[in-house]
Design brief:
The chain has helices at about 30-35, 40-50, 100-105; strands spanning about 15-20, 20, 55-60, 65. By secondary structure, it is α+β, with helices and mostly antiparallel strands. It has one domain (about 15-105). The longest helix is centred in the middle third of the chain and has 12 residues, at about 40-50. It is globular. The structure holds zinc ion. Zinc ion (ZN) binds near residues 59 and 100.
């Protein structure tokens, strides 16, 4: 069965890779390339994670909703795909930064 439905996307037509994460929609490059291949549910979940309506913790930097795949029970996290960031400017925490904060840190 083929359906021609528009695929939901958080893309703001401002896509630019910042060391592995898009500075426009904050998807990782892997998420971007896999987007069209994902199940609809998977995309919906991801959209809600990006929007902060599904959250695992609060970002220690901006105190906004953040999402960690590991905390959610997965083996890997979206942040593993990114170029390593220099986190020396922020207070050390066991909690991960949100996508937005992580994408603005300088690359090591
Ligand atoms: Zn943050």
């Amino acid at each position: 069965m083929t359906k021609t439905i528009a695929i939901a996307t958080p893309c703001k037509a401002a896509c630019k890779s910042e060391g592995g994460i898009c500075s426009g929609c904050f998807r990782t490059m892997d998420e971007l390339s896999a987007w069209r291949l994902m199940e609809e549910e998977e995309r919906d979940d991801k959209m809600e994670q990006l929007a902060g309506s599904i959250t695992t913790h609060i970002c220690p930097k901006c105190e906004e909703a953040a999402y960690c795949d590991i905390s959610a029970g997965h083996d890997t996290c979206w942040c593993f795909e990114l170029d390593k960031r220099d986190t020396s400017s922020i207070e050390q925490s066991d909690l991960c930064l949100c996508r937005k904060c992580l994408s603005t840190l300088p690359i090591e």
